[in-house]
Design goal:
The complex is a heterotrimer.
Chain A: H1 14-17, H2 20-36, H3 40-56, H4 61-69, H5 72-85, E1 91-95, E2 98-101, H6 102-128, H7 131-140, H8 145-173, H9 184-215, H10 234-255
Antiparallel strand pairs in A: 1-2
Helix pairs in contact in A: 2-6, 2-10, 3-6, 4-6, 5-6, 7-8, 8-9
Chain B: E1 2-7, E2 16-19, E3 28-32, H1 39-46, H2 49-52, E4 57-61, E5 63-64, E6 67-68, H3 74-78, E7 88-91, H4 104-115, H5 119-132, H6 148-160, E8 166-169, H7 178-194, E9 198-202, H8 206-212, E10 215-220, E11 223-228, H9 230-233, H10 237-243, H11 249-259, H12 273-279
Parallel strand pairs in B: 3-9, 3-10, 7-8, 8-9
Antiparallel strand pairs in B: 1-2, 1-4, 5-6, 10-11
Chain C: E1 7-15, E2 21-30, E3 35-39, H1 46-50, E4 61-66, E5 69-70, H2 76-79, E6 83-86, H3 99-109, H4 114-127, H5 143-155, E7 161-165, H6 173-188, E8 192-197, H7 200-206, E9 209-214, E10 217-222, H8 224-228, H9 231-236, H10 243-250, H11 252-255, H12 261-271, H13 276-280
Parallel strand pairs in C: 3-8, 3-9, 6-7, 7-8
Antiparallel strand pairs in C: 1-2, 1-4, 4-5, 9-10
The chains are: A mainly alpha, B alpha/beta, C alpha/beta.
């Protein structure tokens, strides 16, 4: 009933103490490395590195595993489909008449690591960074204030709107309306009856919010300050250096012609 | 505020119909009246939101800290350019949709950030305000998870950090349970005792309100019907019932006792049960 | 309208996921035709309990019986024709494009005959005094009118049990009184009415039985006078009897044993004759 829609789990390791901007840059670096390579011999170590960081950073592994569970199907599809579709190199075996190649197996493994890398990195970011810190990081990395305000407001009101949605569904069920029953047409109409009040309520909240925001001098004509200050400390600079170096090394390897499934 | 009239853009009847009112520094004022009497509109006019954020036509003379509401922009009305204090801060009825921040702390910071106040000063103000509303332990909390009373206290703290000269609380308790109400009235009592700003509280229930304020306004159909000390206003029981505001039981029973000669004619009405019981003979 | 309308709650326990128990062994019997006020602070369990009456929530332990039938196997939507539940915020419930359509929706959905739907709608428009606004867009009505419309749309199903969560919140004094007068009429028709409220004046004036909840349990249950006298239980639930009742308790010689301020005033005027001054004039 009171889901918070927050991934953040309080902690105190170096990952928590790191400047959120460094963590956002780190995630972008993982994206870059994941896209640079296709070979599991390169993407695997990236994965191992992330896991090592997570373990060393005492990120609750149970939470990570729980969030990854929703990826199981995607991972399985990637493991099975790529070897079936991608054919290169010597044939290892034949499944239902489909030849499975060495290259195909490699590619499937590589793509699976790519998915895992690109999902675990942001999960780690959100598990160790509060929403205000995340928004502040994006703003300091160049996101315009209005956009970061909109992002912050959606974080703030997501649970509110979800709560309203729950009570609307309950109120309609109490009147004999069950959206999970009946013909498809009936179901669509049932959902429309839930969406209507939800939209109206959201508009009301938005109107109220506009007044509340204006009453607190939102559109005053003077430069705004930011309470949440971010300061790069020594460990942040070191981390940025390491991330930068990793990216440079990655690009160099790729330019030298390594890292792809041969 | 002199003879102020206001009509919302789509309305056919005026929401404010000739209201004259002046509020001095440090006054603690209560405002009551039936739904649609214009209480919220009056609050929003005092905050400059009417007409600047709502549209509509404003007539008459409305001066906030001496500045003409019609001639100034909302920003100028809320805070003079050189000031780190807002002229007025307002909280609204619905506890949920007035909390902007992702956390309590972020919400409190929002107003002062807009005023361009230095981060260290914001930090000091947040600590003070949370201390005052007794929510220091929830500084990092997520607004959605708070109780109604706590949310309303966050809203009041978010107004306090603006260091307003006038604090307007529009029906702070109407969505709260009795415990939440008690929290808010206890807080209003301490705000009044602290001084330093004028307070205007809108409220349905006259018994709690009358005991908390020095001056009581009653509105009906966009006009002020009463503007006097609460104990004087509450002697007009029949008129209050006619307007549609429920007078405190003690006021009603006190008048009946007077009528029957049980107690000598009074100048003022009874508000608390203790004072009435003490005045009754035998 | 006198066939059925009973609620029987047997040792019900309930907890929301990952939280402490919201209901801790609640037992309660409500007979057909009763007018019950369920009171207590937010978090005391009163709304959680009421949501068990139509299986919006299901007990972790214990049984809920409506008219003698265990509702464990029934669905909320199926119970709609027996138990009407009106939510606190009317805007969560209203969706139709006219007032009349809103009222008609429930019975139509249950396949009630067309002329019967029309008859019920006409009557309810009169009862809630929205006849002139029958073609209005529901969200253009005032809060009080929307609240009445929400109740009317639940009533159109003609449930034997009507539960209304905070019927007077957001309404002013007169609006609240009008709303409660409607509850009184519906109760007089033989329906069981359960209101969930914080307003002790409303309780004093309208309820014939008061159930006080605190900490997920029922701490007091009885007629309003009896419950208002139980200072310790009320105090534990952070509630207070209405002011007129408290004053009268201290001076029963003057005010008698009233529930409402009107009764207290009348008692005083009847007990103490007009003064000489008044008699002379």
């Amino acid at each position: 009933m009171t889901q918070s829609f927050r991934l953040y789990e309080p902690g105190s390791s170096f990952l928590y103490r790191l400047d959120p901007r460094v963590k956002v840059v780190g995630v972008l670096a993982v994206f870059l490395l994941s896209i640079l390579f296709t070979s599991p011999y390169y993407l695997g170590p990236v994965f191992a590195l992330i896991v090592a960081i997570i373990v060393a950073g005492r990120v609750p592994l149970r939470r990570v595993a729980l969030l990854l569970r929703s990826l199981t199907i995607l991972v399985l599809i990637s493991l099975v489909l790529w070897p079936l579709l991608y054919r290169q190199g010597p044939i290892v075996t034949t499944v239902f008449g489909f030849p499975i190649t060495e290259g195909g197996l490699e590619y499937g493994a590589g793509m699976t690591f790519r998915i895992l890398d690109m999902v675990i990195a942001p999960i780690t970011l959100f598990l160790t960074t509060t929403q205000p810190d995340f928004v502040a990081a994006l703003r300091r990395l160049g996101l315009p204030y209005k956009a970061s305000f909109a992002l912050a407001t959606s974080f703030r009101f997501l649970p509110t709107v979800a709560g309203v949605g729950t009570s609307i569904v309950e109120a309609q069920r109490a009147r004999g309306l069950d959206p999970s029953r009946g013909s498809p047409v009936r179901r669509i109409r049932s959902y429309a009856r839930i969406l209507g009040p939800l939209v109206i309520t959201c508009i009301r909240i938005a109107q109220q919010l506009t007044l509340a925001v204006e009453a607190r001098a939102f559109s005053i004509d003077r430069p705004r300050t930011f309470y949440r200050q971010l300061r790069l400390r020594r460990q942040d600079r070191i981390a940025l250096g390491v991330i930068g170096a990793a990216c440079v090394v990655g690009i160099a390897i790729r330019l030298a012609g390594f890292g792809l499934v041969s | 505020m002199r003879d102020v009239r206001f009509r919302y853009p789509t309305a056919s009847t005026p929401a404010l119909d000739g209201v004259s009112l002046s509020i001095e520094d440090g006054e603690v004022i209560g405002l009551a009246g039936p739904t649609g009497a214009g209480k919220t509109t009056l609050c929003m006019a005092l905050a400059g939101l009417v007409p600047h954020a709502t549209g509509g036509e404003l007539d008459g003379d409305l001066r906030l800290a001496g500045r003409d509401s019609k001639a100034c922009s909302l920003g100028e009305l809320l805070a003079p350019l050189d000031s780190e204090r807002a002229f007025v801060a307002v909280t609204f009825q619905d506890p949920e949709s007035q909390i902007v921040g992702m956390t309590v702390e972020e919400d409190l910071a929002f107003g002062p950030e807009n005023l361009g106040i230095a981060p260290e000063e914001i930090d000091r103000r947040i600590s003070e305000a949370l201390d005052f509303v007794r929510l220091s332990h929830l500084r990092e909390a997520f607004p959605y998870a708070l109780s109604g009373g706590q949310k309303q206290r966050v809203a009041i703290a978010s107004a306090l950090v603006m260091r307003p000269r006038l604090l307007v609380l529009d029906e702070p308790t109407s969505e709260l349970d009795p415990l939440g109400r008690a929290e808010i009235f206890e807080l209003i009592g301490r705000l009044a005792a602290e001084g330093g700003y004028a307070i205007l509280v809108v409220e349905h229930a006259l018994d709690d309100l009358a005991a908390a304020v020095d001056r009581l306004l009653i509105m009906d159909h966009g006009s002020l019907v009463f503007d006097d000390a609460p104990a004087k206003v509450l002697r007009r029981v029949e008129r209050l019932v006619e307007i549609g505001v429920r007078p405190p039981d003690a006021s009603v029973l006190g008048l009946a006792a007077e009528e029957r000669g049980l107690i000598p004619p009074q100048q003022v009405a009874f508000i608390a049960d203790d004072t009435l019981v003490a005045a009754l003979p035998g | 309208m006198t066939d059925g309308g009973s609620v029987r709650i047997e040792d019900v326990w309930f907890r929301y996921p990952s939280r402490a128990h919201a209901l801790r062994g609640v037992s309660l019997v409500i007979e057909p035709g009763e007018f019950v006020a369920l009171i207590g602070q937010n978090g005391s369990g009163k709304t959680t309990l009421a949501k068990h009456f139509n299986a919006i929530l299901r007990p972790e332990r214990g049984r809920v019986l409506i008219d003698g039938d265990d509702i464990a196997a029934k669905d909320t939507a199926d119970l709609a024709s027996v138990v009407g539940y009106c939510y606190q915020n009317p805007d969560h419930q209203i969706f139709a494009s006219t007032v009349a359509e809103e009222i008609e929706f429930g019975p139509r959905n249950l396949r009630v005959a067309e002329e019967e739907v029309v008859r019920r709608t006409r009557r309810l428009l009169d009862v809630v005094r929205l006849r002139d606004q029958w073609s209005a867009y529901p969200f253009s009505l005032s809060r009080g009118e929307r609240q009445k419309l929400a109740v009317a749309s639940v009533l159109a199903i003609e449930p034997r049990i009507l539960i209304v969560d905070e019927p007077t919140t957001g309404l002013d004094w007169q609006g609240g009184e009008a709303m409660m007068e409607l509850m009184r009429v519906l109760n007089a028709e033989g329906r069981t009415v359960v209101i969930i409220t914080h307003d002790m004046n409303i309780v004093a004036e309208f309820a014939r039985r008061v159930v006080v909840m605190a900490g997920g349990q029922i701490v007091a249950d009885g007629g309003p006078r009896a419950v208002f006298r139980r200072d310790a239980e009320l105090h534990a639930a952070d509630l207070r009897a209405p002011q007129a009742f408290r004053i009268a308790q201290r001076r029963p010689d003057l005010f008698g044993d009233p529930l409402t301020v009107a009764e207290a005033r009348d008692a005083l005027l009847a007990r103490v004759g007009p003064t000489a001054h008044e008699a002379a004039s």
